[in-house]
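User: Fold both of these, please.

Assistant: Here is the first one.
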Amino acid sequence: MKITIRICLCVCLITVFSFIASECKIYAQETKENNSLTLNVFQNVFDPINNLSWISVMSPDMESKIVSTSAFSKVYKTQRLNRQEEKEDKIDDINEIDETERILSLVKPSTINAKVLEQTHYYQNHGIKSLGVFSKGDIVEILYDYNRVWYKVKFGDKIGWVRRNALEIPKDPETNTQEMTKKEIEFYVNYLELESSSSYLVWVDVDRQLTHVFLGSTGKWNLIKTFKCATGKNDAPTKRGMFKIQDRGLWFYSQRLGGGAKYWVRFDGEYLFHSVAMDINQRIKDPTLGKRASSGCIRLSVEDSEWFYNYVERGTTVYIN
C-alpha cells in the first residue's frame, strides 16, 4: 500500500514538473518572438522608407503615424537632393564663367601704339585740312599707313593723318607661340557671334600669325583650316576690324612694292590675302611666314593661298583682331 502511494506521488510530481517545463518553454518562445518583434519595430522606425511590411503588426493609430513619418522622410530626401542639385548647378555656372574668361584672355588685340615726338598737326587727309594738334608725348594708336609716309592714328576721340617723322613706332613684337586648341578657337568665334554672308568665316589672329577658316553659321562655326601667315609689320600694319571678301585674281605685280604674289583675294582696298612674296618671274623672294613681314597684306604659303582662292567665297566675313 505504501509503495503504491509513493508511486502515485512520484507520477504526480513528474506530471507537474513536465507541465511547468512545458509552460516555461512556451513562455520563453513567446518572449523571444516579442523581443524580435520589438527589435524589428525599433529598426523600422529608424528606416521607414525601405521597409513598410512591419506596419501590419501596429495599431491603426500607430500605422497612420508611421506612414506620415515615411512621407515626411521622402519629402526631406527630395528637398535635400534638390538643394544638392542647385548647389551643383551654381558650381557649374561658376566653372563655365571661369572657363569663358580663361579662353577670352587667350586672345589679345594687336594694337600698335606710337609716341608723338613733337607737337604736330593731324589732318583730314594726307596733309590736307588740319583737324587739330597732338602734343609731344601723346601715345596714339596706329590704324593703318599710306606708303609708310603718312599714318592714320587715333588718340581718344581724335582721328587723323600724321607724318611718319612725327612718330616713334615700336619694333615688331614677337609672335605669340601659345597654341589654342580647336575647341578654344571655335568657342571664341562662336562666343563673339560672328556672322557671315557665306557658309565660311575667316579669323586672322595677328598675335599668333595664324589665319583660321571656319565652315557653318552664326554660333555654329566649325574650324576646318588653320594657316600660318605673315601680316603687316608695325610700320605698315594690317588693318584690324571686320571686312568682307571681294574680288580675286591669279597673279599681280607691284612696281612700287617691287614684288608680286599668286592667288590674291581682296578684303579691303589694297589689302589682300595672297601667296608669299615673289619676283616678277614668279619666283619666291621672301618665304617668311609666322611673323610680321608684309606691307599690310596677309601672306600665306603658295599651297594655302591657292586653297583660300578656290574655296573662300565672296561676301565671307573676315575678322582681324
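And the second sequence with its predicted structure:
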Amino acid sequence: MVDLFVVARRAGVHFFGAGPYNPAAAAEGTGTMLAFALRRLALFPLLLFCVYALAVLLIMAAPGDGLESAARDLPPEVLAQKRIAFNYDQHWAVRYFWTWPKRLVWDGDLPAHQYEDWTVVEILRAALPVSLQVGVLGLGLAIALGVSVGVVAAANRNRLVDHLAVGLGVIGISLPTFVIGAGLLLIVGLWLRAAPVGGWGQASQALLPAIALALPSAAFIARLTRSSMLDALAEDYVRTARAKGVASWRVLFEHALRNAFVPVLGYLGPTAASIFTGSFVVERVFAVPGMGTHVVESINNRDQSLILATVLVYATFLAVMNLLVDLLYAAVDPRIRAVGAPR
C-alpha cells in the first residue's frame, strides 16, 4: 500500500507548521545537518571548558581543599608531602587548568583525596559502566512505558483508560525519585521479595534502580505523547487512512505516531539529563557503586579532583546526548532536513 504520509506531503499537506515536501530541499538539508553536527562538535571543547571553569569557581568558593578533612590526624610533614603530591604547592590557576587536566586526561595518574590507592581514572573506569547500565536501562524503560501509555490513552480518549493514565501521570511527575526508590525497596524488595533490594553484581539488581529512575520521566513522556497523538489523530491524513480501511493499529503506529513522536524526541535530551543526574540519589538508596555514589561522597569529603572529573564526564555525556537528539530529528522527520538544521 502507498504510504499515505508521503502522498499527503507531496500533495502539499503541512504537518505541524512545516512546508510542502521538497525532495531537493531534503537532500540539501542532509548536508546542512552534517555541517550543523560538525559545528556542534567543534564547540565541544569550549563547552567543556566553560563547565569545568564554573565547577572550579564553585570549588574555590567552598572552604577547605579536601586534604584538611582527609588528613586531620597526620603529622605536618606527611600532610606537606600530600599537598605536594596533589599539586597544592602550585598556583591555583596552574593546578586547576593545567596540571590536573593533564594528569587526568594524558597521564591518568591524578589521585583522589579520599582513596589512598586509587587514581581518579581507576575510579571512573569502575563506576561509569555501572551508571551507564542503570541509566540506559532506565531511559529505555521510560521511553517504552511512556510512549505506550500515551498512545493507549490517546486511542481511548475520555474513557476509563485515559483518565487512569492521566491520573497516574500526575502522580509519577509529582513523586521524587528517592520516594519512588524507597517505595520500591519496601514493596517489591521487602514485602514481595520479587527483586534484590540493593548491591551490585547480578543483572536483576539493576532493575529496581532503573525503574525508580524511569517512572517520573515515563509519566511526563506519556502526557506529552498523549497530547501529540491527539493532535495527530485529528489531522486529515489520519481520517483519509481510516476512510480507506487501514487497520487501526497501522493508523496509530505508522501514521499518527510518526508525527507525534517528534516532540517526544525533543524531550529525550532533558530526560537523559534528569535520569543520569537523578542516579545520584537512587544509587545511594540502592547501594549501587556507580558514579552517583562517588559524586555524593566526593562532595561530602571535598574531594576536588574527583568532583571535577565527574563533572567533566557528565557534561560530555549530556552534550553528546543533546547532539544525538538533534540529529535524530532528521532521521525521524525528513521535513526537518528540508527546512534545515536546528538553530
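The chain has a mean pLDDT of 80.
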